[in-house]
Design a protein that fits this description.
The chain is α+β, with helices and mostly antiparallel strands and 135 residues long. The chain contains 2 helices and 9 strands, in the order αβββββββββα. The longest helix has 14 residues.
């Protein structure tokens, strides 16, 4: 089967993010990539899926990349700034997107709790087409 896993339990992903953060507290970005467990490749051919943990009060600047990105807050709250545009203030279950070739700044809106963000983009497609780029 091309896609052996259609469901990636959030409890497993959350636990993995917390373990990564505990193993290396100096690590700036705590993120996991959803992959096909049989091949080690992307979970899907066209879309890439990631989960990110923002530590309490953390701000993280992502580089400008060719694919557009969609951000969905699973737990906590985040502020998402696309380039120099006004930031989106997101609560749990809120979603926003940023266009490609735009730097993104994520900020945990909580000073005392981590926030968890799901990210989807077209990185697998861009890599296959040979147009993937980080600026």
């Amino acid at each position: 089967r091309a896609y052996p896993m259609l469901r990636y339990p959030w409890s497993d992903t959350r636990a993995a993010l917390q373990a990564l953060a505990a193993d290396d507290p100096s690590q700036e970005c705590v993120q996991v990539t959803y992959i096909n467990p049989e091949t080690g490749n992307d979970a899907e051919n066209i879309l890439g899926f990631y989960a990110l943990m923002l530590r309490p009060g953390q701000s993280l600047r992502l580089p400008a990349r060719s694919p557009a990105q969609v951000f969905h807050v699973i737990e906590g709250g985040a502020e998402v700034a696309c380039g120099e545009a006004e930031a989106f203030a997101l609560a749990e279950a809120d979603t926003c997107c940023c266009p490609g070739y735009t730097p993104v700044t994520l900020r945990n809106r909580h000073a005392d709790l981590p926030s968890f963000v799901f990210i989807a983009d077209e990185s697998p497609l861009h890599r296959k087409l040979g147009v993937y780029e980080v600026r």
